[in-house]
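Practice problem: predict the structure.
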Amino acid sequence: MQSTEITNVQIYPSTKRLVPNFKLVKVTQKMDSELYTDIVNGKRKGGVVEKKNHKKHGDIVSVYTVTNAKGYDNTDPLNVTDYAVLSVCASEYDIGNRYTTVAIILRGLIGKVGNQNVRPRPDQYNAIINSLKKLMFTGIEIDLSVTNAELNYGGKEKITSALLPAKIVETSINGKIVDDVIYFLDESPLMEIARARKQILTYDAELLNVPNQNNTLLVIAVKNYVIIRVLEIKLHKLTPTLTFGDIFEKCRIANADRKIKQRTRSYVISFFEHLQNKDEISSFKIFKKHNKFYSISFTF
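Answer:
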């Protein structure tokens, strides 16, 4: 996994976040463990219904398989943090950076781009490294031939690639030797598909920088999921409501105890206050159902 690069690299991190936002990303992000394990083990293939009830072809489906690289064994489905890490890496690649570091990725995840004083804590470091390994060592093969033809999408018909084509090297970054530098070998196939379909969300990373907030792993997951939902709603003029149940599920705390869910609701509310202060939304309200906190709605 690790090799040595002798070149000295100057990195100017991206201040923008690019998020591949098409159906395959959403489907794999909410996949249950049993299905994902079966796909990884070759027991069945995955399918994404791109369009229902097409007048000529019925449901149009993109077929895909997911595999582990040799020597890597992970059947844990991709989660919000994995895709957030991929998004930061894709954002770096997009502006021409072919190298990045765990510290730069963390700063992108929490909106503190360029703040050299922000360094990963052990739990943050381990979470980012684990996500990077999952992305680098998880391969995906996608057949888009029917989808592209029938829905007039551009891009390649078949793609076989690691989710994040990259390796970890030792090199000099901004004049300092770093032993866990991520070197991008190519663009992520998910970004390639999103670019061809023009299905990329873009926002200022600063929107994730909530003042005086302790960026725990759960806080990072919550912010990175909620901002995508807010942007999707604004872009497509959807019903401007997020349920706490959906947030709990996507951030994998649906079965957590009451205190964790209570703290998570406070993180969500703090984040909406921040988005309001940044003029990303105009206002928001919390709603209850059967005397329990149920959803948060906003105007923009």
